Amino acid sequence: MELDISTLAERPELQDALWQLSDTWPEYIQNDPVGWSHFDRIVAELPEYVLVATDEQGALVARALSVPFALHEKGRDGELPDGGWDQVLVWAFADRRHGVDPDTVSAIEITVSAGRQGSGISAVMLAAMRENARARGFSEVVAPVRPSAKHREPHASIYEYARRIRPEDGLPHDPWLRVHVRAGGVIEKVAPTSMCVPGSVAQWRDWTGLPFDRPGEVEVPGALVPVHCDPERGHAVYVEPNVWVRHRM
Question: According to the 3-state scheme, what is the secondary structure of 8-69?
Fold first, then answer.
């Protein structure tokens, strides 16, 4: 399948269609207050870092969002943050507000339309994201990767999981990490607090359909680790780890 990939700045007429792509985010992830308070701003303020892909019929089949930020600014010194996805979004828009020149691009999200998933489009979009960063003068793309199969092992250590490899080829066990490594990325570290989703037990019941009536760990479909529930105090918190991958071009 031939794809026409461009930036949203070049194809602004696709902005409405971009939001109509069905994503695979669980509902509770969409309630990450840090991430989702900044998410729409990428499209509105940074369209040159938003990629859109259309097929031969002109239908939108994928999007890829990224943000520029100053990783090597004083106080950050090139160290990828433990706060992962949330932190890099905060940094990107804080840098933009204060006029700090970016030196790195971070991947934020790649979404492929329903029915086209599993056909290699995500890898194509990752390559296009790298090329877009290179074309804008950057030599590095980083990615707080949400391992796509970790939810099957919510109690497994993310530190062990991130380094787990297949014996037949030495590539990562996780499919999405494998795509990044095949594209030239290097797994650098775990971001243990990449996404944080606090909520009342009533909200968590609404988001998941689960009772959330017992204290302790609650396994939630799609969650990479269990959610911590404290019904006596009426709240539950999900702290999701991601895996930082560094792409140098």
Answer: CCCCHHHHHHHHHCCCCCCCCHHHCHHHHHHHHHHHHHCHHHEEEEECCCCCEEEEEEEEEE
Burial (CB < 10 A; 0-12, 13-18, 19+), residue 167, is exposed
Predicted TM-score (pTM) of the model is 0.95
Q: Do the Cβ atoms of 135 and 127 come closer than 8 Å?
A: no
Decide if 84 contacts 118 (C-beta within 8 A). no
Tell me if residue 197 falls in helix, strand or coil.
strand
pLDDT attached to residue 1: 67
Positions of the chain with pLDDT under 50 = none
**CB neighbourhood size of 230 (10 A):** 13
Tokens representing residue 188 in the block? 């650098």
| Residue 143 three-state SS | strand
The whole-number pLDDT of residue 192 equals 98
Question: How many other C-beta atoms can be found within 10 angstroms of the C-beta atom of residue 33?
Answer: 12
> How many angstroms separate the CA atoms of 69 and 218, rounded?
35
What is the rounded distance in angstroms from the CA atom of residue 60 to the CA atom of residue 111?
A: 11
Angle among Cα 240, 157, 201 to the nearest 5 degrees reads: 40
In 98-170, beta strands by DSSP E: 104-112, 140-145
